[in-house]
């Protein structure tokens, strides 16, 4: 199954983003769990999707109870995650260095 990953950095190098998704939209894989971890930064925003946008359709987000976000991880929630994942997106902020 084909997946893609994009990593981007803001012009001021304070934020970076990472997206992993299935370009064909919905994955036929049965996920029992998932976890993405950020090192050297804190997660500002994250979202997980059961279906990625394709052919004019929009991303379909997981229900909020299916996953949890901490300062450094995005992961499935045991007993709540419904085994479908086609996209994961994270925006994180690097620590600010004082002069």
From TrEMBL:
It comes from the Eukaryota. One of its GO terms (biological process) is positive regulation of endothelial cell proliferation. Pfam families: UPF0556. One of its GO terms (cellular component) is extracellular space. This is MYDGF factor. The lineage of its organism: Eukaryota, Metazoa, Chordata, Craniata, Vertebrata.
